[in-house]
Each structure stands twice: as structure tokens, then as C-alpha cells.
Amino acid sequence: MEKICLTCQSKLTGRSDKKFCNDACRNEYHNHLCGNSNNFFEKSTVSLMKQNRKILTGLYNNGIRLIARADLECFGFSFKGITGLEMVDKGGFHVHCFEYDLVKHGNRFQIEKQQL
């Protein structure tokens, strides 16, 4: 049985388990398989989470520990890009973004950094 390249359909020679004729065909195949349309929401969420982390790191490093939601959003923070949400007693909640926690205090959030 003759084997053919999965990308360009050319005849393969060499190893019996070979699937592609060269690196370019292999790369094209995998880029198409893992293309933009399949991972759009995953990539955009990861991008938001990284942006949020960068914002919280900057605020924390500049000594800002208590901040209003509106001010967070003015810096570009998006509550769609968080890594976790924890409900606590009396209807309160903690927002997690990697090693940072936002603890709700009235109409403000306290920024806390977890020590690893």
C-alpha cells in the first residue's frame, strides 16, 4: 500500500510510519488542525486573564491595596478574565486571578497576593 502526505498528497518514501513529506507540510497540517477558529474563545480568555494579572501586579507593586470596581475597570480589568470566584458568608465573594485575590469590602476590592 502506497502512503501519501496528509497535506499535499504526494507519495511518501522512507520510514513506514511517515505521514508528511517535509516539515512545511507537517507544520501546515498542524496549524490548520489547531487553527484560529477552534481556539478563539480560549485564546481571548487567556489574553484577558494575562491582562488582568498584569494590571493587578502593577497596582499591587505600587502599593494600591484598596480600589473601587469602576477604577479597576478604568485600568482595563475585565471580570470576564478571572481564574476563579469564591462565594463566602453573607453574600460576599472573592475574585481570583492567578496569585491575586480581590476581596469585596463594601463598594471596593482589597487586592491580596497569595504567597507561594
Please sum up the structure shown.
This protein has 3 helices and 5 strands, in the order H-H-E-H-E-E-E-E. With 116 residues, it is of the alpha+beta class.
What this model shows, in words?
The chain is an alpha+beta fold and 116 residues long. It contains three helices and five strands; from the N terminus they run ααβαββββ. The chain has helices at residues 23-33, 36-61, 69-74; strands at residues 66-68, 84-87, 93-97, 100-105, 108-113. A five-stranded antiparallel β-sheet has the order 1-5-4-3-2. A hairpin with a 2-residue loop joins strand 4 (100-105) and strand 5 (108-113). The longest helix has 26 residues, at 36-61.
Neighbour order of strands in the largest sheet: 1-5-4-3-2
Which residues sit in consecutive blocks of at least 5 with pLDDT less than 50? none
- Report the helical percentage: 25-40%
Structural class: alpha+beta
User: Major sheet, described briefly?
Assistant: 5 strands, antiparallel
Strand content: 15-25%
- Average pLDDT level: 89
Helix-strand topology string: HHEHEEEE
- CA-based shape: rod-shaped
Q: What's the number of helices?
A: 3
C-alpha Rg, in Å?
23 Å
| End-to-end Cα distance | 56 Å
* Number of DSSP strand runs: 5
Task: Describe this protein with a few key phrases.
116 residues, alpha+beta, five-stranded antiparallel β-sheet, 3 helices, 5 strands, 21% strand, rod-shaped
How do the strands and helices of this protein lay out in sequence?
Blueprint: H1 23-33, H2 36-61, E1 66-68, H3 69-74, E2 84-87, E3 93-97, E4 100-105, E5 108-113
